[in-house]
Design a protein that fits this description.
This protein has 18 helices and no strands. It has 461 residues and is mainly α.
Length: 461
């Protein structure tokens, strides 16, 4: 009956994505496209099977049409859904693919989505510092693009992470932000977990009545959404809250939590509730203890299989190396840009020096030796600059071999030195002659002026 129901849901909702595929493909604005795709991927928390099917359709179309924005969202969604199924290896695989694809495009929405999935993957491996780093990046990109729906998801998940690590002040801040934004924009997809987090926060702060009120609202919101995952999570939180105070109530809510996901793709979410019931019945009822130990074992194996853990740790390690390589590449590119700017300024300086020298050598500078010295200096700057430009090229081609570098530099010198001398001789002699000619012309003009003045004075007498 469960699979029949799933089939009915899929057949009733799949035509929606079939109608939207041409709309998404036709949309030229990346920001609008990102929001269209995100809205189509809203069934992860209620029906991850359907969401997987939609994501695969979107990915197929994106790769066929060379649509990187849709591709990032589809890959990230696949990573998110496989995490819900407890398949952390595939979650990492698609998360890494989404991250690599997002890095190649300028879309802040795509970068936000990819960073969010990577943050969740790191959170699953308990690498909380890196998880927080990716969450922060996802929040920054969502804020930059005013992508409020995705921002709600970021706040909800970051608040949950801080709650898990017992950083209550930070958990309260982000959960409260997520709650306020969700109610402001009337986006309820993450309202359930946000209410549950606020309940857990107030429970830790000792506000019992407020905590229970938030838990009850979270359960109600889970049923409104039709999300077995959120219903399970809220009932589990209530069971944990009552465990030390009212064990019977804890057992009641733990059973409700398991029932909520028993015949759904979210079966692995029964782990905490089954462990609570196992502990409760361990010395009271052997049959019940055995029953819940089996549920706990199955859920535990699906999440904490040794091979899966090793694979996810390896993928996390490889991604850390890739991120470090990206940082090093960016630093290297920045250094190269600085070097290129410096070379451009040096070239501009040399050209300016030569132009000024050519101008003033015809008028201001009168000493032949000084002209010869400045001419040699200008040529020396030019040839040394050429040598400076060629040096990195030679290092690359010779692979820093001293013998090959020496041979290449000797060959360059064999060409440049005779050329240098010829140009030096021509340029300096030409400039000196021009300078002499200018000075002689000025002297003649001065003599003519004096002669004319003398003749005018003679006529006057």
């Amino acid at each position: 009956m469960f699979f029949v129901c799933c089939a009915e849901i899929c057949f009733s909702q799949m035509p929606d994505i079939d109608k939207m595929l041409p709309v998404i493909a036709a949309e030229k604005n990346d920001s609008t496209k990102a929001r269209l795709v995100f809205d189509r991927l809203g069934s992860s928390e209620t029906d991850p099977v359907l969401d997987l099917q939609i994501s695969e359709k979107l990915l197929e179309q994106a790769q066929r049409n060379n649509d990187p924005v849709t591709e990032v969202f589809a890959l990230a969604s696949l990573g998110y859904d496989y995490r819900l199924f407890g398949d952390n290896t595939k979650s990492w695989k698609y998360g890494l693919l989404a991250m690599a694809a997002a890095e190649k495009i300028p879309s802040p929405e795509a970068k936000a989505m990819a960073n969010l999935v990577m943050a969740l993957n790191y959170g699953n491996t308990s690498d909380y510092p890196r998880a927080i780093k990716f969450f922060t990046a996802a929040i920054d990109y969502s804020t930059q693009s005013k992508f409020d729906k995705l921002l709600c998801a970021c706040y909800a998940n970051l608040g949950e992470l801080y709650l898990r690590t017992n950083k209550i002040d930070s958990a309260l801040m982000y959960s409260q932000r997520g709650y306020e934004l969700s109610t402001q924009i009337k986006y309820h997809d993450y309202l359930g977990p946000l209410l549950e987090q606020l309940g857990s926060i107030h429970a830790k702060l000792g506000n019992s009545k407020l905590a229970v009120s938030f838990y009850d609202l979270a359960v109600e919101e889970g049923y409104k959404m039709g999300s077995p995952k959120f219903i399970n999570s809220s009932f589990t939180a209530l069971a944990q809250y009552y465990y030390t105070q009212q064990p019977d109530s804890a057992v009641f809510y733990a059973r409700k939590a398991i029932e909520a996901v028993e015949h759904t793709p979210f079966k692995n979410f029964s782990l905490t509730a089954s462990k609570l019931l196992l502990d409760f019945y361990r010395y009271k009822n052997v049959d019940s203890a055995f029953k819940y130990s089996e549920i706990y074992r199955i859920a535990n194996d699906s999440l904490f299989n040794a091979k899966t853990i090793q694979q996810t740790q390896l993928m996390a390690f490889e991604e850390n190396i890739r991120q470090q390589q990206l940082i090093e590449a960016a630093e290297k590119e920045e250094q190269q840009n600085k070097k290129n700017i410096e070379l451009a300024l040096v070239a501009l300086g040399i050209i300016t020096f030569i132009i000024l020298f050519m101008v003033i050598s015809r008028s201001i500078i009168t000493h032949a030796k000084l002209i010869e010295f400045l001419g040699v200096l200008a040529l020396l700057l030019v040839f040394e600059f050429v040598n400076l430009l060629l040096h990195p090229f030679l290092e690359k081609k010779t692979d820093h071999s001293p013998s090959l570098m020496l041979l290449a530099l000797v060959c360059i010198a064999a060409v440049l030195i005779p050329l240098h001398h010829r140009i030096e001789k021509w340029a300096t002699s030409r400039l000196v002659e021009n300078n002499k000619a200018n000075r002689l012309a000025k002297a003649r003009k001065t003599i003519e002026t004096l002669e004319e003045k003398r003749l005018e004075e003679g006529k006057g007498e």
